[in-house]
Structures are given as C-alpha cells and as structure tokens.
Amino acid sequence: MGSILYRMANLQTVGREIHQGIAFDIYSSVDLCIPESPDPSLLQLMYIDEGSVLSGSGDSESSIFTPVLLCLNYRNPVERLTLSNAKGFSVFFKPGVINHGLASGVFDCAADELPADQDAQQDKNLFRTERVLLSPFIKTGKNPYPLPVNGTIRNRILRMHENLHIQLVSQPDRFWPCRGRSFFLEILMLLQSMYAFENNLASLPIRIRDEFYPVVRDIHVHYPEPDFVCRPGSPPPLLGPLFFSYRFRRSVGSFPSRYVRNLRCSVGANLLKNTMLDLGEIARRCGYLDEKRFAGDFRSIEGIHPLDWRSRFPNPYG
C-alpha cells in the first residue's frame, strides 16, 4: 500500500517538559499517513517524493506523477488513494492552528462569500488573507488536489518540513509552538502560491505573462535567501539581460527588486499577525540580514512600524 493507517491521537503533538500536556493542532509524520477514522475538522498535506500514486476507483482511476503535493479535506468525500513504493511525509492540521480566529464557524464560508452575521463578517474580513492560504484545500473541486513539484520547490519543501518536525518532536525550548506554527505557515504560503500559479488565479499579487512564470516562481521559492538576486535563468529570445528589469516591470507591474521586497514584507506581515516571533527572527525568515532594513521596508509599504502593525490584531493564540 505504501501508506500507514494512523489513529490521529497517536500523531498529535503534545507538550512534554515545556507546555506540558498542551495539545497542538498540527500533526506531523515522516510517513505517508491515512487517518484510520477521518476527522472532518482536519485538513491534510501529503507530500509524495517518489513511487506510484493512483487516485479514484475502478475505471475512473488515474495516475498522479511524483513528486507531488496532495491537499486533502476530510470534511468532504476523499477519493481513494493507492500508493506503491511511495515515500514522503504527511502533515494534518486544523484551521485554528493558523490563527485562533479561524477556529470559529467563519471557516465554513467560502473565501469569497460573506456570512450574514455582522460579527462573523468582521472576522471574515479580518482573516481574509489567512483563508486564502486554505484555498488549495477548500476551493478546488478535487479531493485530493494534486500540485506538481519541481526540483527547486522540492528542496525547500523538504527543508521546511524538517524544521517543522524538529520543533514538534524535539520541542527544544519554550518557543517551539510558535516556531513550529511559523514553519507551517511558510509551507502553506508556498503551497498557496503554487496553487495560484497552477490556476492563474487573481489571488496572485499580479497577472503574469507566460515568459515570466519561471522567474516569478523562482522568486517565491528563493526570497528567504538574503543573497538572492532576481534574474532570468534562460532568457527567452526577446528577453535580453539589459532589458530584463524593464520587461519585467511592463509585464508584472513593478521592478524585480520591488517585487521581491513586497513579497518578503507580505510574508513578514503574515508571520507578525499569526505568530509571536520576535522581529529579528521574522526579518531573517523573510530574507533580511538586518531587522532595521526589514522594518524600514515594511514601514514604506504599510506606513507603520511592524510591531505597531502587529498590535492592531488580536492574539493569534486566543
């Protein structure tokens, strides 16, 4: 079969010496897991690095090529998965782990719908960005929804899951829940950008000409690297190095350096709002060597210091 049936209670992370006995709603495994009794409140990210993957049943069964990320939503019927000689990992989670505010019934509404209740509408607007992160799980019409993974994205996904798993299993210090949540958020942000690229959705910050898809995809993978410089890997016939920035701006709407800055600050805003990481660590995770540079860039976009911006929102842990 290539996958293991698990009781979710055996996978759930529970604080040991630090935050003793507190359950954490991210369940991480280095195996490809299928829940023994699916909990409808759970979503699952399954990364399959190699092996044979079939989805569906009978005559409608189809192959899924690896490496691939599968997004599963146990609130809805899930197609049967058949795995053979497959390797990878699984992450289960409840939406409230992104932000306490997503644990309410507002999650039941589609991302582009507003609930009738006025308080729920306010919550809905407050967590619109976070709900976009759930799009690959709740708006696809496919269950599981496959996202193909190229070599560059593969390496980053494996690193992020390793960092997440270390925090949940080793629990190295009192910040492990916050740090674990932050690595998980980074996985979701990369996943959502992959989903948006695959579907050419308006949830992308810009509309991209086909020739720039590889360039922008590269930015979304490498922005955390402080020495990253946006440049074309293999310039198309009409895209010479001297005209790259100019043509990028005409196609995407901003110069490459500004696009990278805006993306880094957008990721920083998500981490500010949904974790309590200190400013220096957020800056480093967004590709800055200096938190002052991050604060300056953030202020130029939002008009306010990052910590003052964070104070506008409720505690993400409830």
A few lines on this structure:
This protein has 318 residues and is an alpha+beta fold. 40% of the residues lie in helices and 16% in strands.
Helix/strand layout:
Elements: E1 4-6, H1 8-11, E2 13-14, E3 23-24, E4 26-29, E5 33-35, E6 43-55, E7 62-63, E8 68-73, E9 81-93, H2 118-126, H3 128-132, H4 135-138, E10 145-148, H5 151-170, H6 176-199, H7 213-222, H8 244-252, H9 256-274, H10 279-285, H11 291-302, H12 306-310
Parallel strand pairs: 1-5
Antiparallel strand pairs: 2-3, 4-9, 6-7, 6-8, 6-9, 8-10
Helix pairs in contact: 5-6, 6-7, 6-9, 9-11, 10-11
Would you write up a description of this structure?
Helix content is 40%, strand content 16%. The radius of gyration is 20 Å and the shape is globular. It has 2 domains: 4-98 and 133-174, Jelly Rolls; 205-310, Orthogonal Bundle (Arc Repressor Mutant, subunit A). Residues 109-121 have low confidence and may be disordered. Strands 4, 6, 7, 8, 9 and 10 form a 6-stranded antiparallel β-sheet that branches. A two-stranded parallel ribbon has the order 1-5. It is an alpha+beta fold and 318 residues long.
Radius of gyration: 20 Å
Kindly give the count of domains: 2
The CATH level-2 architecture of the largest domain is identified as: Sandwich
Helix- and strand-based class?
A: alpha+beta
Total E-strand runs: 10
For the terminal residues, how far apart are their CA atoms?
Answer: 40 Å
Helix content: 40-55%
Largest sheet: 6 strands, antiparallel
At CATH level 3, the topology of the largest domain is Jelly Rolls
SSE arrangement, N to C: EHEEEEEEEEHHHEHHHHHHHH
Percentage beta strand:
15-25%
Number of helices: 12
- Report low-confidence residues grouped into runs of 5 or more: 109-121
The gross shape turns out to be globular
* CATH class designation of the largest domain: Mainly Beta
Oligomer: single chain
> Average pLDDT across residues?
83
